[in-house]
């Protein structure tokens, strides 16, 4: 347009994030995008740089407000930081006494500028950090300022050991607990985020001490009552933090789980002896002193055998296997001390049975501890996206031990129901594992409820469930039924395709995940009703189903080239230099589009969404649906359709080969001629 001083102007998107157009991103402009002519990023940066130094508070506040929104743009952020703009922001925070709107804009701008990773968090001055900490520790501060301050500290903690120690020292756990108890859910969420960041960055010893302190402060009861059972529904992010807290708590058992028994440790030997004494005290106490050493040793060996140890002369050998290591011993001791009646009943009941039918307490406990560790993922690293926590975990002190007490009694009950002998040991424990996992999948809210349900799911119930599943399989494996299945498949696959495309038309909220942390930034993507265009754009928290007009970006389906999943995605390769998280890889997929082969990168919120989106995109690309969900959906639909078709054949056996078709008759004179009747 031959404007004079062209370098002072720039083009900018009108909708969405209002990004500036530069040489590097001009190729991404879509047909139909509305652009506006505006001052160039460097001019704007210069203007705001002077504006935030103004003595007029209105000008200063407006400049900071504009700065907070423009800082999302990488070009502007680069220009502003090059002018040493961050120094000015530090100055406003360090020198200012304002705790209201102006400060909130300043901190928001700071967060956005730091988001681009041009500047290291470690360059922050001590005075600035102290000021941010003071906003968290003061009461008379605007809630939005406290939220932003908590977010800033949460971002600082993982970047360096020095910053972690500083934040841990300055922001006490007590202070964070105070923030957790507010009614403002956003502030509560940010406080929980900082607490989790501190726990994840701590060393094992520090983490153990922090968890111990939180336990003393009854954080578990508070979470159970005020967060899980609050009137507000639980958000995805809070569910993730509760999952991490549960995971960190359970991982405190890892140390004991991986430690083998040391036969020379007096403390561990005393624990072993206490098991024997609690069970057989009354029988052996009085005369024990008068026995010779040899006699006493053989009596001990006999009692350890009754307790169910494999190696009765040296029971410590049974506990050398790690995992479950010493954790199994801790569980047995906890059971014997906290439910002595149940413990004595278990041991005495089995020591009076015939040798073949006794349920070995110690051997069962060791195996059960291992099963519980596997089910509850003890010793496994936290996932970055999972949200699956057990509400009952927060409803009970000593959750792991109490769960063990319920399950070890379940082992004895199932053993009797199965009339098992020693050879059936593995079989019994397999049934117990199934009872526990099936009950946990129902997400019971308390251990009492878990106990009721797991005991109701007895061996005969498990057999019925298995038989139903087996019958269902056998029923659907007859040759004619298999033929019918194949005939029904195309129609049902078409139904699944339609469902996938409908799901894409409804759209999904995706989260942006940076290499540093879980991001709060959200974007939405949906397919147009005519299945010709993918619309997407950034959205605010709390927006569930934005109208298609509000999503500024679009990709015509005709331009889509291919779908990449998991490790094939380019952006997962770029990030894999760090500790690449397995679950992010499992949920990642990208659409390659246009001649230039740009990529639109997704990280699905759940595996279910991942399956539906990858299937839907494959349908749009004219390819086969490949997700595991397609197979399960197809199986469900086929089994329902087959059951309906076979209803009339109840109790009739279907032959494997079709019956022979009789020969046609010699003449067809028995046919009725309708033409005469009409006349």
TrEMBL record:
One of its GO terms (biological process) is actin filament organization. InterPro entries: ARM-like, ARM-type_fold, ELMO_ARM, ELMO_dom, ELMO_domain-containing, PH-like_dom_sf, PH_domain. It holds the Pfam family PH_12. Residues 267-440 form the ELMO domain. Gene3D superfamilies: 6.10.250.810, Leucine-rich Repeat Variant (1.25.10.10), Pleckstrin-homology domain (PH domain)/Phosphotyrosine-binding domain (PTB) (2.30.29.30). The keyword Disulfide bond does not apply. GO terms for molecular function: SH3 domain binding. The keyword NADP does not apply. Keywords: Apoptosis, Phagocytosis, SH3-binding. Involved in cytoskeletal rearrangements required for phagocytosis of apoptotic cells and cell motility. Acts in association with DOCK1 and CRK. Was initially proposed to be required in complex with DOCK1 to activate Rac Rho small GTPases. May enhance the guanine nucleotide exchange factor (GEF) activity of DOCK1. This is ELMO3 protein. It comes from Rhynochetos jubatus (kagu). The gene is Elmo3.
């Amino acid at each position: 347009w031959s404007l004079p001083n062209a370098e002072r102007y720039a083009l900018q998107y009108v909708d969405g994030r209002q990004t500036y157009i530069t040489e590097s991103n001009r190729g991404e402009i879509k047909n139909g995008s509305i652009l506006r002519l505006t001052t160039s990023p460097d001019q704007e940066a210069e203007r705001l740089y002077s504006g935030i130094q103004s003595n007029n508070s209105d000008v200063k506040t407006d400049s900071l407000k504009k700065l907070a929104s423009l800082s999302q743009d990488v070009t502007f952020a680069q220009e502003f930081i090059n002018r040493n703009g961050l120094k000015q922001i530090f100055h406003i925070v360090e020198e200012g006494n304002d705790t209201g709107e102006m400060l909130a804009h300043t901190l928001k701008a700071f967060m956005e500028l730091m988001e681009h990773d041009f500047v290291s968090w470690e360059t922050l001055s001590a005075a600035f950090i102290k000021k941010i900490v003071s906003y968290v520790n003061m009461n008379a501060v605007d809630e939005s300022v406290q939220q932003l301050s908590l977010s800033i500290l949460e971002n600082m903690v993982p970047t360096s050991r020095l910053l972690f120690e500083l934040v841990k020292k300055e922001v006490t756990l007590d202070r964070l607990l105070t923030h957790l108890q507010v009614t403002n859910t956003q502030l509560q969420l940010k406080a929980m985020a900082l607490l989790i960041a501190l726990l994840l960055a701590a060393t094992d010893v520090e983490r153990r001490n922090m968890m111990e302190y939180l336990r003393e402060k009854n954080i578990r009861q508070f979470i159970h009552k005020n967060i899980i059972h609050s009137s507000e529904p639980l958000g995805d992010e809070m569910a993730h933090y509760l999952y991490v807290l549960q995971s960190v708590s359970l991982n405190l058992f890892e140390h004991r789980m991986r430690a083998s028994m040391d036969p020379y440790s007096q403390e561990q030997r005393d624990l072993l002896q206490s098991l024997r004494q609690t069970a057989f005290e009354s029988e052996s106490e009085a005369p024990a002193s008068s026995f010779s050493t040899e006699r006493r040793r053989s009596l001990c060996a006999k009692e350890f055998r009754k307790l169910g140890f494999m190696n009765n002369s040296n029971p410590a050998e049974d506990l050398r296997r790690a995992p479950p290591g010493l954790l199994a011993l801790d569980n047995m001791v906890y059971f014997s001390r906290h439910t002595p009646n149940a413990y004595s009943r278990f041991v005495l009941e089995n020591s009076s049975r015939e040798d073949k039918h006794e349920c070995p307490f110690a051997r069962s406990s060791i195996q059960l501890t291992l099963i519980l560790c596997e089910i509850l993922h003890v010793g496994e690293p936290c996932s970055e996206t999972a949200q699956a926590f057990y509400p009952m975990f927060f409803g009970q002190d000593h959750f792991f031990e109490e769960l063990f007490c319920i399950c070890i009694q379940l082992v004895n009950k199932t053993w009797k129901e199965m009339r098992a002998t020693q050879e059936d040991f593995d079989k019994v424990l397999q049934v117990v594992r199934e009872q526990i996992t099936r009950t946990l999948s129902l997400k019971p809210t308390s251990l009492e409820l878990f106990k009721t349900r797991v005991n109701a799911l007895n061996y005969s119930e498990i057999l019925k469930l298995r038989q139903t599943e087996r019958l269902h399989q056998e029923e659907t494996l007859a040759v004619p039924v298999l033929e019918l299945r194949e005939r029904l498949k195309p129609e049902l696959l078409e139904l699944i395709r339609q469902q996938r495309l409908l799901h894409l038309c409804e759209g999904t909220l995706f989260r942006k995940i940076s290499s540093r942390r879980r991001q709060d930034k959200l974007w939405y993507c949906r397919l147009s009703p005519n299945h010709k265009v993918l619309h997407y754009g950034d959205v605010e928290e709390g927006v569930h189903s934005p109208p298609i007009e509000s999503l500024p970006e679009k990709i015509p389906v005709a331009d889509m080239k291919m779908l990449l999943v998991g490790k094939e995605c380019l952006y997962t390769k770029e990030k894999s230099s760090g500790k690449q998280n397995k679950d992010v890889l499992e949920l990642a997929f990208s659409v390659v589009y246009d001649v230039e082969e740009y990529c639109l990168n997704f990280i699905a919120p759940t595996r279910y969404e991942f399956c539906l989106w990858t299937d839907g995109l494959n349908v749009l690309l004219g390819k086969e649906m490949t997700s595991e969900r397609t197979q399960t959906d197809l199986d469900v639909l086929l089994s329902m359709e087959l059951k309906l078709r076979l209803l009339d054949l109840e109790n009739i056996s279907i032959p494997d080969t079709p019956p022979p078709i009789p020969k046609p008759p010699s003449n067809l004179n028995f046919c009725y001629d309708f033409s005469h009747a009409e006349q």
